[in-house]
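Most newcomers find our protein records easier to grasp once they have seen one. There is nothing in a record beyond a sequence line and a structure line. Getting from the letters to the tokens is the skill we practise here. An example says more than a description, so a record of this kind follows:
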Amino acid sequence: MADTTLSQEEINALFSGAAAGGATTGGSSGGQLTAQEIDTIGEIANISMGTAATTLFSLVNKKVDISTPVVSEATWDEIASVYDKPCVLVKIGYTKGLDGSNILALREHDVKVITNLMMGGDGTAADEEEIGELHLSAISEAMNQMMGSSSTSLSTMLSKMIDISPPTSELITLKDSVDGAEIDDFLKGVFIKIEFNLKIGDLVDSTMMQMYPVELAKEMCEAVAANMESDSASTVDDSAFESAPAPEAPQQQAAPPPAAAPQQQPMGGAPPPMMGAQPMMAPPPMMQQAPQQVNVSPAQFTPFAGSYPMAGVPENIDLIMDVPLEVTVELGRTHKSIHDILDFAPGTIIELNKIAGEPIDVLVNGKYVAKGEVVVIEESFGIRITEIMK
């Protein structure tokens, strides 16, 4: 997945295209937003979710494609009647820069595949599992990272710091008859619906939906418009400064030439100059400076050997004797996947890479320095050094 981070100039170019009617979003406005605002929201979603797709790729290690968004206005009853259930709703609130929240809706199968891939699986047997707290926690962390990177793109687009709260996830089953107001206040009326086609390798090919309150959408559109006006004004000021003519240097009035003695026409020579003609002044010869004598001699350096006053004197190690170091006694190591670690419970036995009775490693600041054997000193453990590493 290529990096989708755009510069401010590229972002402005995209929004300029949207303002001119060139946005690639679809959907119709029901009167809450203008057509230009619908296009602007589509461009914002296109850039921010492109960044989120790159983050999801790093989490699942599979190719992730998110299509061009389709923006429209909807109500909760319309969403509940057409969107598949069971599904997972992830709520993300803005804590800085924007006022409001947004909700992501993902299908049950998609959540199972994403969480299975995050835990080290291949995603093929994801449907055999039931969605539980572990899946909801994992998908919340995935959305936290995705929307965190999306907030970074929003910060660039809106020219202000954007921050989000930790996402919360909720499973909506076929038996649930959920009122939108119970999830978020903005779902009581008309809101903005943004649909994406989500593809993850050959495992997922479905629709992901994002819902915005109308007030939040308008706030983002106003911030984008103000940012573009500020950039345009700055560009105009810079061009005016560059195109301003440079002030002309004042012309010095030439002194009148000294009166010349009347010339006699040489015999057979050219006629004298005409009356009023300016005499041709020969350019003065360039001043030539006589070369100076420079004395050049080889550089003389003091030899290093035996000349340094402290040479041959032992280093004073007492200067660092009181520097504290971290000493670690390592019983052994092993490697476990996230799936195995989440299965840990009281009584779980973890096999290490050490054989019983084998010397224990002693590390100082992470470096192996010695080996030893474990001993008991009164009621505490200790280690007896048996070998110093060289």
Summary: DSSP finds eight helices and twelve strands in the chain. The first helix runs from residue 8 to 19.
